[in-house]
Amino acid sequence: MQRRFYIHFGLSLLLVLSLCLLIPTSFLSATADDSGYLFLGAKEERRVKKFKDGNTLTAYHQFGTVASNEANSPWNRASFFAQGSVLTNSDNVLIAEVALCETIDNDGDITWMYHEWWYSNPPGSYEFIGGTGKWKGITGYGATRGMLRGRTDDHYMLKSEMHWNIKKD
Question: Is this prediction's pTM over 0.90?
Fold first, then answer.
């Protein structure tokens, strides 16, 4: 009797494991490559620190909107907020920039990214560090690919690309 139980249990386990191999990986994760652009307002200076060597560190906030080429992207019609710092030299030439960026999609789900740009070694880069809702568990990276269009004011239209992945529990 006990032997029959173990045989049925073993066969049932083997059947379940075999069926798991048939599950499409799309149910276990979401992955995409995407491109689009960021329309960003002016950087609102929050604090400025001048150093003895002539360099200046400027803390800023920046708001905008992100447009994506993929409908299921965390950047598809999302609002954008960045809190960052820019380092310039004594001639006001950009040296580096770093920011924590937040996007909120139409459902209210959020992603957070780290943005870094060394102006002597472009392009700027993004790295996803977390998210909420459908973006929970997001990982990935992206890059700034230049200006979409030049402007005469202090706003920006940056081309970007990103590669992201979400592993579902």
Answer: no
